Amino acid sequence: MSSTELVGRYLAERARLSVFAPLALLVACAGAFSAHGVASANAFGVATVQALLLIVAFRVWDDLEDRDRDAREHPERVMVRAGRVSPFVGLACALALGGLVPTMLSPQPGRLGAVVAGAAVLFVWYRVRPKPATGVVGGHIVLLKYPAIALSVAPSVPSPAVLASLYLVLCVYECFDDPSLRASIVARRIAFAELALVPLIISAAYLGGTLP
Q1: Quick one: which of 6, 26, 33, 207 is 20 to 30 A from 87 by CA?
Q2: Containing domain of residue 185, as a range?
Q3: Residue 34: which H helix or E strand, with range?
């Protein structure tokens, strides 16, 4: 099978737009709100495309890191059955580069550093995580990439409260979407606590004048 076919089959299996497009919109929305107001439609559109490319790039990386585990639990997956990983490494690099070009051209400092810092955290986690990785801890660490992406694609510096809320909402979603986390009483309690924090964070930010 050619590299193009492998990549096409992988994207159809693991990067469905019905899932990733709404997620990219959510991440872009988080990056569109700042103390200076709401981003323009054009800037929001660019941020959404960037977010989509970066989210899929991170998904490819996640799958590359989890390939051994998936060989046991999901042997039918395209990446597991492929005899080589170079097409997927190339895909991840191309997606990341495409998603970061507008950020690299931005005059605002720190935006590129956000996604680089998020990638660095993930790199360290993948090197030191226990096997099997702890679900609650691992899930929270892996999800740090989303506020990092939101910050990197934001037209202007977004409110920390919005980024924190994005992170907490996705942590809650992950808990109830992942069967192993959903079955954990500890994970559910953490999720409910995080959900309760979101309106408190938003209210405090609004009263403090850091939200438009």
Answers
A1: 26
A2: 3-207
A3: strand 33-34
